[in-house]
Amino acid sequence: MICRCRSASLCAVLQAFYAVIDTLDHKPSVDILRRAVKQEERHVEFGEQQTAKAIEAKPWLRRRLLGLSLVSMWGVKRLARYMEKRLVKQGQGANLLHHLPAFLDHANTCAELRLRRIGVLDRPLAELSGGKRAALVAEAYGGKLLGGLGSLVALPIRLLPWFKKQRVTDTYLTDPHVVGYQRVLPEGEAAAHPLE
Fold this sequence. Notes:
The chain is mainly alpha-helical. It is 73% helix and 0% strand.
């Protein structure tokens, strides 16, 4: 689920990068953004691959991700409508604001395409009835609620020292690969931070 959420946020970053690249008239900045876009595209691709693997055998996860995505897309649509009504039509804000509602609609279109490509959505979003969408959202947040309640019930057990999760930050300084590593310095030169 983390990959899907991360992928969605990276997709929004990519959309913004593409928009800036298309409108910016400063070659050095555009070149930097193009390199950043390549890296972000690899991150998005990784997130999509991991999400597709995760939902392959778990239909409940596919439905949950779709329900959560529907809420995100609804929020973006509401934001676009608000901006169009309050900022654009009333003539407030900079010229850039006039393009944001269309940009947000485009971001939603891209999100729908991405959801279909990775298998979270199996048909066009327009074919999902309002009742089906509401059921998916309720199932997604109901699952989150049950997970939260389960965590709350398990909290007293997790407080016991035998059931405490070890974190990488708790153990990496005792890892033989980390502790055993010592940089070889030329003779006479002392290490700035000697290992203890």
